[in-house]
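Example 3.2
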Amino acid sequence: MRELTYVARRTVEWREAPDPRLQSDGEAIVAPIAATPCDVDSAILAGHGFVDPPFALGHECVARVVDVGATVTAVAPGDLVVVPWSINCGTCDRCRAGLTAHCSTVPYMAMYGAPIGGTWGGLFSDLVRVPYADAMLVPLPTGLDPVAMASASDNWSLAWRLVAPHLEARPGARVLVVARGSIGLYVSDIARALGASDVLYVDPDPEHRALARGYGAATADSLDPLPQNYDIAVEATGRVDQLALTVKCLTPEAICESAGNHFRPGELPLLDMYLTGTTLRIARDNVRAHIPDALKLAASGKVAPEKVVSHIIDWENLPTALPEQHLKPVFVRRDA
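Structure, written as tokens:
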């Protein structure tokens, strides 16, 4: 089989690798049919990652099940499934508590798309081995488009977690989204669908802002501090200066979720946060726990994640098209 390998800044290539095989009765082999880059993949391709190449890339996809071990009961060959980005056993104390990105059975940061907690391959591959198949794989609900849901492995389900539980606790809250990519757009869609009274989407990219307006959000190209204006904020830029501006816009006892990967240090206005009682979470996402709820919302018809898909591109064109700077391209494989 082939796996798409990151070899240098803005450079990926197909490399041959042995076909994965079942190593236990609880595993599955899947073939990705719709895969998309996560926002962090864009950072890796731009040369901002912290793992030296080469390594297999990709951690967001919908796949078709090819083979399963004898004890797998949740999925069967032919099923369409969402493959979570992090490797998790589903049975350790952390997994049972929903902390699937911190599974104690596997090495720390075990994941697809980067060889940090072991080598698990990437989801831009012809075939992928999935350990703990019953715990990890989530069947795609009937009627959902694999292209629209290619990001359910991470960004779409993360966006659900960033805003949906907070809006349930604070109906009608005002939501601020400061973003540079797909996560912020998904959040804007979900926030409006779940009853936010006001959504402001901040992004310098005019095409992104146009998409946000299509979701009913107000937009701006930059953020000026608006003290005590927003009850919930989501920062997804990876820039500490933008996070600092974001937390200055919050009402007392507000919540700020930071979904950016902050590769560079910076300063936060801690005194302002102290005076308003801000809750700030900067978290590696335990996405497996949220995928079912995120898919349920997608199936409700209240949201339109497909609008964020910027390009639909043939699987064979991954090496040339992935390094191009598109918002959310989905690479589709017809033969799996």
